[in-house]
Design a protein that fits this description.
Radius of gyration: 27 Å
Shape: elongated
Distance between the termini: 82 Å
Number of helices: 11
Order of helices and strands: HHHHHHHHEEEEHEHEHE
Structural class: alpha/beta
Largest sheet: 4 strands, antiparallel
Strand order of the largest sheet: 1-2-3-4
Number of strands: 7
């Protein structure tokens, strides 16, 4: 009888802790980018259900596309050689979302669902797909024996979902409140690029013999550096970015002292720095009419204002009804600071603000 054929070569398994961390963190990064996509796009296309629908659909499409193509690529070549380029590429594409959004969305204010979806696809589909390709590559590396397929796939699928959950909670409850959107996206991109470098060094030790073109080279590193530089070159439409709004103050060319408070895409409030009794918006002028009807003699009033915005009515009361006392309930402390710096708001015993939800 002839000698038994040698066993088929198997891929060297990636250390399980490294595999777990890669799947968890890349899935978390995808969901972080999904939530930050809304913050990046809303100042251009508005805070609407259409915007969130476009983002959720695009990210899900990216996850599906990346998982499918990543699995195909892992079957055709050594998946260990895919991981570092996928991490670096995902990080670079995350960074590119910033200048790409500014370049494409500058003329799309008030866009409809088709344009909003197109913009989202062009900016966020690619990073979601590239990062989602990491999981099938890691699965292939972890499958040392077919008898363990269910266990390995189940573990990594659970970790992928857990990473997505943590990424969602971390972004929604913490990240948007403590850091500007663009800084957060840059942080995600840089961490992914750094992760790609670490994985490259780790796997290089375990795979000293590599095929030409595998791993990270100078061109890919240069692309990452250019992506990072491009993210800083883009100009934010926000004068102040808070946990709630992208806020800015614009001059009114029709009135020398006129200032408009813009929150996201909406003209939210108006004041005249030279004439606090000027009420520009029609509905605010109606408030003035009601106040005049209640106190035609200009006597002092006590008022509770639900929302401060540009503080048009509190400033009007102070000027037109001397001695009035206003208490303003304002959701966003950043709006109050912007009003103090740009809209002539002066707080005092007669005008106080309580901030918070």
């Amino acid at each position: 009888m002839g000698a038994a054929p040698p066993p088929a070569p198997t891929l060297r398994r990636m250390p399980t802790p490294v595999a777990n961390a890669l799947v968890f963190l890349t899935s978390a990064a995808v969901l972080v980018l999904e939530l930050l996509a809304a913050r990046l796009l809303i100042p251009y296309v508005g805070n609407t259900l259409e915007t969130y629908t476009a983002i959720i659909g695009t990210i899900l499409a990216g996850i599906a596309l990346g998982t499918w193509l990543g699995g195909r690529a892992a079957d055709r070549r050594d998946p260990a050689g895919l991981l570092a380029p996928l991490l670096l590429g995902g990080g670079a594409l995350a960074l590119v979302t910033i200048p790409l959004t500014d370049a494409l969305a500058g003329s799309l204010r008030g866009a409809g669902p088709l344009t909003t979806t197109t913009l989202t696809v062009l900016t966020f589909l690619a990073p979601a797909a590239v990062l989602s390709a990491v999981t099938p590559a890691v699965v292939k590396l972890q499958l040392a024996h077919l008898d363990h397929t269910g266990r390995v796939v189940g573990r990594l699928s659970a970790l992928s979902t857990a990473g997505a959950i943590v990424g969602s909670f971390l972004t929604g409850f913490v990240l948007v409140a403590v850091a500007p959107t663009r800084a957060s996206i840059r942080g995600v991109g840089v961490l992914l690029i750094a992760g790609g470098i670490v994985v490259e060094l780790l796997l290089r030790r375990r795979r000293p013999q590599r095929r030409a073109g595998e791993g990270l080279g100078l061109p890919s590193m240069m692309v990452a550096v250019l992506a990072l530089a491009g993210s800083f070159a883009a100009a934010s439409p926000c004068q102040v970015e808070s946990a709630y709004f992208c806020a800015s103050v614009r001059e009114d060319p029709a009135r020398a002292g006129g200032r408009v408070l813009v929150l996201d895409t909406l003209r939210h409030g108006y004041v005249d720095l030279d004439d606090p009794t000027h009420l520009e918006f029609t509905y605010v002028a109606w408030y003035g009419d009601v106040i005049t009807a209640i106190a035609p003699d200009g006597r002092a009033l006590e008022a509770l204002h639900i929302g401060g915005g540009a503080f048009s009515v509190p400033r009007y009361l102070r000027a037109a009804h001397a001695g009035s006392r206003s208490v303003v309930l304002e959701l966003d402390p950043a709006v109050v600071r912007l009003a103090e710096e740009e809209l002539g708001l002066v707080l005092g015993d007669d005008l106080s603000v309580v901030t918070g939800d």
